[in-house]
Amino acid sequence: MKQTDTPPVLVTGATGRVGRLVVHQLLDAGIPVRALTRHPEAAATLPAKVEVFTGDLTVPESLDPALSGAGAVLLVWTAPPRTAEAVVERLAAHVRRVVFLSSPHRTPHPFFQQPNPMAVLHAGIERLIAATGLESTILRPGMFASNSLAWWAPAIRAGEVVRWPYGTAESAPVDDRDLAAVAARTLHQDGYAGGDYVLTGAESLTQAAQVDIIGDALGRRITFEEMTPDEFRRLSEGTAPSAAAEMLLAAWRSAVGQPAYISTAVTDILGTPPRTFRQWAVDHAGAFTRGS
Asked: What is the CATH number of domain 9-144+174-201+262-275?
């Protein structure tokens, strides 16, 4: 049970796919929660217990009301880098603990070693946090299972062939719910200061195998066809920066014929193994059906 003097945890990115889950995990643990959002209307679907603050990472002083009296912050960086130093300074002035949702750019596996502007940004923020003396924990999720929703769900809902590059590239997708549970645990329990955790699923799967598993969850076969890198580049135009598309192509190319990097961090922190991709697919099958 929570104590009445438990300071609240501030969740940035609280209306995003991970932040929203972290909010629920913290509430379930009896921890008071504050949500930071640029658009208060987006927070209307958060539980009524959540205290919503309007703030913007590009306007560091706007964070002060949400930080005042908070004990810990989940930092999900969703802004350009220019205000990162000022934001981190404000965190250090107000709270004791920060959990930063970063990327696995330091992981010794080719899949995570491709040139990546986001990884450069994350590395810079990590250095800023380390210089403050804050109790910090770095979380580095690998590939998200939920990427399937953006990548393959439209074709699957339409009953079409899934066409994608590097179908034999292997990854170990992590369930957003496991990531959120780890984030919540490290935000409100002691013992994780200085921790640096790469978070993955427990099994190495090719992209084609992941599509097959989604088909199993739906009770039908989904045909997978190889797409060329140039086709992927054209497909990505207007929907993703070219640097992001090139990073993904390079990462997938490097992962062909090589088992994915797998960590035990989810099990180590939660005491239970990570959810399988099959379990994720069954639980999200409705998102791949027509009309969803």
From this structure: 3.40.50.720
